[in-house]
């Protein structure tokens, strides 16, 4: 604690730890709370739409060709 803090009647918080430096001056360092990663709730869990769908439907959708007009393929 510094002289100013002693005169002001400074009470240390629970997270403050008094430490002495080489010059016999007390330094108050605050301890950080332990790091706790939080669960990311900004995005839903990734799900591959092909893997979670019916494989037969997926295959049919991929192999299905668009309709062709015969008029587009008439030879002159």
TrEMBL record:
<feature type="region of interest" description="Disordered">
    <location>
        <begin position="1"/>
        <end position="51"/>
    </location>
</feature>
<feature type="compositionally biased region" description="Basic residues">
    <location>
        <begin position="1"/>
        <end position="12"/>
    </location>
</feature>
<protein>
    <submittedName>
        <fullName>Uncharacterized protein</fullName>
    </submittedName>
</protein>
